[in-house]
Specification:
With 165 residues, the chain is of the alpha/beta class. The chain has 6 helices and 5 strands; from the N terminus they run βαβαβαβαβαα. Helix 1 links the parallel strand 1 and strand 2.
Length: 165
């Protein structure tokens, strides 16, 4: 039997950006099935609820085949085991990401040696995008139309309006 051709791309996705989507769509071409695993992220004060983040990903990926969006709570390697994933895909934007992600990959290897970590560089035009910067630019009234999908743009505008009231 061949090794699993299922991979996980995990994150908080608060909110999902065009950088995330670039890696997701490209990673999906490398595997039979890609699961986008949205972390409950109890340790973070997220702008969007777990259900909102899942809905935004589903809306942004509605035309993609072989991509499933799920939530998880706990270790990503446990989620891999639960769904039968043989790989974790991680996006690397810069050296800081590489330092952090390589440490996480080594720890995941200790916890689950059967799961490989695959690093992918985003396309240069979206490499600088981060959820943190998107939230900040949106909050300060900047133009984020080149950073997120229309669904995410609308959701951010709604959050911004709600914060004003």
């Amino acid at each position: 039997m061949s090794p699993s051709r299922t991979a996980i791309y995990s994150g908080t996705f608060d909110p999902v950006t065009l950088g995330h989507l670039d890696v997701i769509v490209r990673a999906a071409t490398l595997f039979d099935h890609l699961v986008v695993a949205v972390a409950a992220a109890h340790h973070k004060n997220t702008l969007f609820s777990l259900n909102e983040r899942i809905a935004l990903l589903q809306a942004s990926l509605s035309e993609q085949e072989r991509i499933e969006v799920v939530s998880f709570d706990g270790l990503v390697v446990d989620c891999c085991r639960r769904i039968g994933a043989g790989a974790i895909v991680r996006g690397i934007r810069n050296g800081t990401d590489m330092d952090y992600e390589s440490q996480m990959a080594q720890m995941n290897r200790k916890l689950a040696p059967e799961v490989e970590t695959i690093f992918m560089l985003p396309t240069p035009s979206v490499q600088c995008i981060s959820s943190t910067l998107v939230r900040e630019i949106s909050k300060l009234g900047g133009d984020i139309t080149q950073l997120v999908t229309p669904a995410v743009l609308s959701a951010l505008q709604t959050k911004k309006q709600a914060a004003k009231t």
